[in-house]
Amino acid sequence: MTVTLQKKGCVGVLTLERPEVFNCLNMDTLAVLRKLIAEVAQDREIRVVIVTGSGEKAFCSGADLHERRTMSEEQVQDYIRTIRDTFTELEKLPKPVIAAINGLALGGGTELALACDLRIMSESAQMGLTETSLGIIPGAGGTQRLPRLVGKGIAKELIFSARRVRPPEALSIGLVNRVVPAEQLMTTTFSLAEEIAANAPLALAQAKYAMDSGLEVDLTTGLQIESDAYQLLIATKDRLEGLAAFQQKRKPVYCGE
């Protein structure tokens, strides 16, 4: 399998399994990734998702350029549409997604990380939207998600220059949430995932929806989105469980209902 899904408690781990080619994305890999994303969306036991790459060298090096060289112009267009749609489906999962960036994340690899909600970066990793050095532009969401995350000015500098971003800078500009030693990457990521997974899954889904949708509209509309999301949670069993657990001074046990 070019991508695997492992379940560890309430956490699902999607791993790109092509370390010999720096976990780059060909059409077969995208098809498997897309299938597994759909499985994760339907699996109520999975409350938080981690995305990472196999091996120590690469998280994801983006498009499989060897495959791309054999493509016609129409096939390239289909490939770009497929990778863009796959990342959007990952982004729209109704559960938090954390990128554990274990190595190189270049081009589409950075775009994959940008489609995640949170990013934890190894001290040995590098990121970068390097497409302009190849005569193209980021085509899987990079021109849209990067400026929304770090601001237009920084995003333009990074995309125009095509330079690689090392961990200290990535942290300082808000490209990643945390930087940790390589040997601590997965334990740190799992710890955060489990901390998040302890909370009510319906609340996590609505919080994600409210933030992602609300930031694309004016404040008044955003506040209405928040209000509607809150309203959906009032009648849930999990809301009542949260209140009962607080009153009884115990940890809540959420069922996602």
List the helices and strands and how they pair.
Elements: E1 3-8, E2 11-16, H1 27-42, E3 48-53, E4 58-60, H2 65-68, H3 73-91, E5 97-101, E6 104-106, H4 108-114, E7 118-122, E8 126-128, H5 142-150, H6 152-161, H7 167-172, E9 178-180, H8 185-197, H9 201-214, H10 219-234, H11 237-248
Parallel strand pairs: 2-3, 3-5, 4-6, 5-7, 6-8, 7-9
Antiparallel strand pairs: 1-2
Family: Belongs to the enoyl-CoA hydratase/isomerase family.
Protein name: Enoyl-CoA hydratase/carnithine racemase
Organism: Brevibacillus centrosporus
Please tell me about this protein's structure.
The chain has 257 residues and is an alpha/beta fold. The protein folds into 2 domains: 3-197, 2-enoyl-CoA Hydratase, Chain A, domain 1; 201-248, Lyase 2-enoyl-coa Hydratase, Chain  A, domain 2 (Orthogonal Bundle), CATH 1.10.12. The longest helix has 19 residues, at 73-91. The strands form 2 sheets. It has a 6-stranded mixed sheet, with helices on both faces. It has 11 helices and 9 strands. It comes from Brevibacillus centrosporus. Keywords: Lyase. InterPro entries: ClpP/crotonase-like_dom_sf, Enoyl-CoA_hyd/isom_CS, Enoyl-CoA_hydra/iso, Enoyl-CoA_hydra_C. This is Enoyl-CoA hydratase/carnithine racemase. One of its GO terms (biological process) is fatty acid beta-oxidation.
